[in-house]
Amino acid sequence: MILLVGIAMLGCLALSYLVPIDDGHNPALDLGGWAISVAITLALGLICYFGGMLRARGQKSPQVMRQREAMTLVGIGWAVCSLVASLPYLFCEPHLPLSSAIFEGVSGLTTTGATIFTEIEELPKSILLWRSVTQWVGGMGILAMFVVVLSGMGVSSKTLIGAESSLSNSDIASLQQAMRQYWLIYLTFTLFGGLGLYFLGLTPFQAVNHILTTVSTGGFGTRNDSIAGDEFTTPIKSLLILLMTMGAISFPFYLAIIKRKTRNFRQRYEEIWWYLGLLVLATGILFVAQFAEHFQADAVDVVFNVVSLSTSTGYVSADFEQWGDITIGVMLILMIIGGCSGSTSGGLKLSRIILWFRYVRAGLKQTFRPKVVMPIKMNGRPVPDSALAQLLLVITLFGFFAISGAILFRILEHHHSALGTLSLIISLLGNTGPAFAEMGPTESFGELSSASKILCSGIMILGRLEYVAVLILFSRALWKRY
Predict the structure, then answer these.
(1) Do 106 and 460 contact (CB within 8 A), yes or no?
(2) Please, are residues 419 and 436 in contact by the beta-carbon 8 Å criterion?
(3) Cα 304–310–311 angle (5° rounding)?
(4) Among 208, 421, 471, 480, which is least packed, fewest CB within 10 Å?
(5) What are the tens digits of pLDDT across the range 175-184?
(6) Dmax of the chain from CA atoms?
(7) pLDDT tens digits for range 414-423
(8) Would the pTM count as exceeding 0.90?
(9) Using CA atoms, how far apart are residues 138 and 216, in angstroms rounded to an integer?
(10) Cα distance from N-terminal residue to C-terminal residue, the chain
(11) How much is the mean pLDDT over the chain?
């Protein structure tokens, strides 16, 4: 995993040479700082790799990764890779303090999109590209790439991917083969989306950066005003809306279309139809809210910000905080829900929300009809009890960390408002980026204390790994077993 991050650094350096810079951006390339970052990353990765190979030589039993080992790898791997991703911010301009570098590295790799930078346009070209590359790599997941590379080497792919994302919910027999196909789809979206942004008027530098952070639903940009600049015309915003929505839709859906597996299509992917309906409903509410809250906004900006928040991308084309309380309420709900399972988006995932409502409805009916068996279905199939238990676990942990995280953050940053604090923690858990009040869409995280930045970094990793893969590291039974 560390070696893959090192390869991503080399890819970023290649892009820094190949992609011409925009006027107004800093073309500086700190080769010395990048050399240190790449050297540390590759050296650490090679030590781990060859150390593991030497250890394996002395063992006669086959190297099979068990479930607990895979879960441990996910939790520790993401923490270490996030630290490694912060190295360019430490050794290159602008030479950030350790806590700020960790925050920015974690935000990129988890595709949260929150930033400590206040003057983004003054950042060196290579750092801007590194922010985008980390989000693109983290969008599909480091473990997803890891499984593709180590195909056929005894790695339990379903356990690894299941600990990192919701792609394991796919009904495809071979997850390793499926991951190759998902990556091919991801690359295709990136290539054609980038060309589309370029032909619609963005410069090559902007097109590369924004396509990397759009298909990954990450949200890092190259301007202080995100997507609110004049160069982002209505056609460009419309294409970004389409690309963000595509990133938030389950990737097995695209694979089914390619393979023409359209039998019971509507029923098998009901989450997607619910999700598209949710986008239409939220947009309609905001259009109506214009009359109640007495604000005016362009129709494309309303749609853009709804899609950006619901997909956990976090781009901003207008300061939606000025659109009134109804808008803030709708946006907060969208941040909690997130996109579809098996996508690059964050949040709780709409499938869990649907299942939770159906679980509650069945429970209410059974209070007056206790002997009736009411199977809970999703995508036309009964949901096993183990999946329902996992559903309740994730939702419970989300609530717990939302409350406890807000309390800890308020202790560290007591001058922040309740709305700003709670919306910030929800945004970080959902890997969305912008929040409200003093942590709103036009604000930076740079003023936070070092302790607060470390707390926020941990919350982002918790949300990206959906809590379990991180919490299991603190289980004494796990370490006693191995």
Answers:
(1) yes
(2) yes
(3) 90
(4) 480
(5) 677 778 888 9
(6) 73
(7) 999 999 999 9
(8) yes
(9) 7
(10) 21
(11) 88
